[in-house]
Amino acid sequence: MHLFVDNLTNVDFSYLDHQRGLVGETWLANAALDGALDHQGMVCDFGIVKKTLRHWLDDQLDHRLLVPILAPGLALAHQDGNISLKWQLASGEQISVSGPEQAFALVESDSINAESVARWSVQQLANSFPASVEQLKLSFEDEQIQDAFYHYSHGLKKHQGNCQRIAHGHRSRIQIFVNEKRDKSLEQKWSQRWKDIYLGTREDLREENKENGHSLVFAYRAQQGDFTLQLPASACEILDCDTTVEQLAQYIATTLAEQYPGSEVKVRAYEGLGKGAIASAKL
């Protein structure tokens, strides 16, 4: 017997890629279970399936940095409940990250993609279901977006939850209106501007190193611990505000209003799937 749960939940995270660097991502999760019928005539109660999988995905993948620990060019160290790593990019540049262990997901693979993360997740969940369940299958997929979107990573040190982790992210839609008329060309420009970008808060910028490749270092102390991130300056945009979706929407709206004086600009910015903020500006 085959049991399935489509659109079980979604996960927002970032991952390391040799070509793209630090990538913010959002995936939809689907699940399927094979097995015999139990005394209730079920493979497994849907309530157990949803609760178990959602809890694990929220706890182990969502708002973490996914690291493919079998990848070449990775140097990783554990010390006193913290992880520090260095990641070599194809360009010869480097990304360095440190923080509490709970901010990372160490995936046994040489690259991060939907298939490798699904295989690893199933291995981690091997003993989480009743004996009637013979096989668990997980799959991840992108939200189908017809218009502009971008991938960004960030960290919110003031957040009480997992958003405080310095390197997590989202794949997000954007809609821009000038004088109530949607402007898809501006949406495309911002999707390119924030393609695989790290959005850093200026007060978290600790160092700017222009030797051996221009890089930026961000660091802060949050409720969960101390975090640092160093990455190429070309992969960053520095904002004079925190990078909540509310403030990102306002930042885009204000930036565009300066370019279109006298016009009203409205921005509908998403943070991952089905949520976001709306901001307006007129100068």
From TrEMBL:
Enzyme class: lyase
SUPFAM superfamilies, per the entry: Tetrahydrobiopterin biosynthesis enzymes-like
Cofactor(s) listed: Zn(2+)
Keyword Iron: no
Catalytic activity: 7,8-dihydroneopterin 3'-triphosphate + H2O = 6-carboxy-5,6,7,8-tetrahydropterin + triphosphate + acetaldehyde + 2 H(+)
Enzyme Commission code: 4.1.2.50
Keyword terms: Lyase, Metal-binding, Zinc
InterPro entries, per database record: 6-PTP_synth/QueD (IPR007115), 6-PTP_synth/QueD_sf (IPR038418)
Pathway terms, separated by semicolons: Purine metabolism; 7-cyano-7-deazaguanine biosynthesis
Gene3D superfamilies linked to this entry: 6-pyruvoyl tetrahydropterin synthase/QueD
Family recorded in the similarity comment: Belongs to the PTPS family. QueD subfamily.
UniProt-recorded name of the protein: 6-carboxy-5,6,7,8-tetrahydropterin synthase
Source species taxonomy: Bacteria, Pseudomonadati, Pseudomonadota, Gammaproteobacteria, Cellvibrionales
